[in-house]
Amino acid sequence: MADKNQQIAKDVMAAVGGSENIISVTHCATRLRMSLKDESIPKDEEVQNIDGVLKVIRSGGQYQVVIGQNVPKVYAALCSEGGFENQVSSEKPEDGPKEKMTAKRLGSIILNYLSGSMTPMIPAMITAAMFKTLYVLLGDTMGLISNTGNFYVMCDFMYDTFFYFLPIFLGFTTAKKLDINPVMGIFVGASLLVPDFMQLAVDGAAFSVYGIPARAADYSQTVLPIVLIMPVFAVLYKFFQKHLPDTLSTLFVPFLSMLVVLPFEYCLLAPIGGVLGDYVGNGILALGSSVGFIAVAIIGATWSFLVMTGMHHVLIVFGISMIAQNGVDTLVLTGGSYATWAGFGMALGAFLAMKHKDEKSLFFGYMISNFFGGIGEPTLYGVGFKYKKPLLAMAIGGFCGGLYAGITHVGTYVMGATNFLSLLQYAGGGTANLVNGIIGVVISVVVTATLTYLFAFTKEQKETGKA
Known about the structure:
Blueprint: H1 2-15, E1 22-27, E2 31-36, H2 44-48, E3 55-59, E4 62-66, H3 71-82, H4 103-118, H5 122-141, H6 150-163, H7 166-177, H8 182-191, H9 195-203, E5 208-209, E6 212-213, H10 224-243, H11 246-290, H12 292-309, H13 312-326, H14 332-353, H15 357-373, H16 377-387, H17 389-407, H18 431-455, H19 459-464
Antiparallel strand pairs: 1-2, 2-4, 3-4, 5-6
Helix pairs in contact: 1-3, 4-7, 5-6, 7-8, 7-10, 10-11, 11-12, 11-13, 12-14, 12-17, 14-15, 14-16, 14-17, 14-18, 15-16, 16-17, 17-18
């Protein structure tokens, strides 16, 4: 397998124009994500024909090559082959050609920023979610442990460790994405959580920055304030880094950046982020209580397609905000989970329908990857986009599961695993919520698998494995 991963890395690097055409490279759960100097060099069809590559996507200002669960090994081989360090090449994005700023380009930059900021937090997010799942399941649901016992309290601590300090985690990841010192990102995030500052909000005391009135508030468990602040901080940081002499940069670049960003942070951006977060949260709650069942169904039908474009990261921001601020999400993450299970149903139906030995074996691997690993993209591209009709079955299955969940007001209480353990995300709402959540999952899987099995393949496709 190591040789195969090395070969994939070599072939991909050659196809995108070599290491000299790669500005930076990172990876997520299934994709290599590259920023290229000249995006016209790689030919998508040529890259997709590389053995081990599932799909090529141009989105969010990135050239994304879908590999599958072995992407970390391919990424390591690519870095070794290209001589990259610290997850980027030695050249900076500004070394590439300047692109004209358009609405489309701006949208790509924003999506790229959100994607690059949210993805690295997933391991910590899942870890925190699993701790909450433990104490909710063992304590609140099954009554096996006391909610005042040490184990229950410890698990609650671990959950709060991530969600309470969310601005600090985002400060780190956004700083890395914006190519500045990540420790300064932590500093900016932590400045929103200083106990004395938060006490001002509790007391309703007046506060100002350089004479400018500021709004003291509790910014723990928030997403938007730090997401808005960090791009401004990065601009200041790079400005001082460029114009200060090297002998003064170590001391004065971070200090002056913080000194200047403070009025933007406390007086403008953090309050705007807080208000926007409240409006979005209240809007989602209002939608969920009125026609939310249709919205959940629509998200269940379209989520997998949003994943392709990267637009799902925008929704994830809102979903995380809902859980962090209100303890439950009844719309975004709930709908997305039924799309994930519909993807598993598509793999299951395809496996049962396919007669071609090699293709059937691949579908079995996709099914296992989806169920145990929570990785749905091999199924999405290896089954859905290859044969096309399974995509319709998946959309219908996700819609049906989401519709049931919306009607029964199923809530997601933790954003955690995307594999079979995701069933536990409904446990926080009690037995009825858990049962209805699982029923919705069964509906998604059964409807998708049945439609895929009966209608998604022609007789010739089943026999030959050719689309």
